[in-house]
Design a protein that fits this description.
Number of strands: 4
Order of helices and strands: HHHHHEEHEE
Shape: elongated
Largest sheet: 2 strands, antiparallel
Number of domains: 1
Helix content: 40-55%
Strand content: 5-15%
Structural class: mainly alpha
Radius of gyration: 17 Å
Distance between the termini: 29 Å
Length: 140
């Protein structure tokens, strides 16, 4: 794990009520995806307290934070109770009403974070056939 909850909350503008415990399950998928993009050696170096390539480590930390947001977003857009997923349908808004993103709006937000992750680490992505987001990474 390169990023931490503080970094993720800062990048996503998330409140402190979104605790590390809420984010924690998504660091694994984010880290695995990032490792596929940049390779195990680059990822491992970025995990070190004193990485050999500090610029790359900073870029990968940012990319991982965006990927955690990408994976976390669907869970932040719902509430669970004993009977399952709770949804709220509201007309107007007040302080005690909840509104959630429509599926297409949620996916659009997720794609923004995925593009931000790619942008953060683009120069470190292994170019050999790795698929990033929806389209293959092109040789430049």
């Amino acid at each position: 794990m390169i990023a931490d909850g503080t970094h993720v909350r800062a990048f996503g503008g998330l409140p402190s009520s979104i605790t590390d415990g809420v984010l924690e399950p998504f660091f694994g998928p984010a880290g695995r995806r990032l490792k596929e993009w940049v390779g195990a050696e680059a990822y491992s170096d970025a995990e070190q307290s004193t990485p050999e390539d500090t610029d790359r480590a900073a870029a990968l930390k940012d990319a991982e934070a965006y990927l955690v947001l990408y994976y976390t977003a669907p869970r932040l857009n719902m509430v669970m109770d004993d009977s399952g997923i709770v949804t709220y349908k509201t007309v107007g808004t007040s302080s005690d009403e909840f509104t959630y993103l429509k599926p297409e709006d949620l996916e659009e937000l997720r794609q923004v974070w995925l593009r931000d992750a790619v942008s953060a680490c683009r120069s470190y992505i292994i170019k050999s056939g790795v698929i990033v987001g929806r389209t293959p990474v092109q040789e430049e």
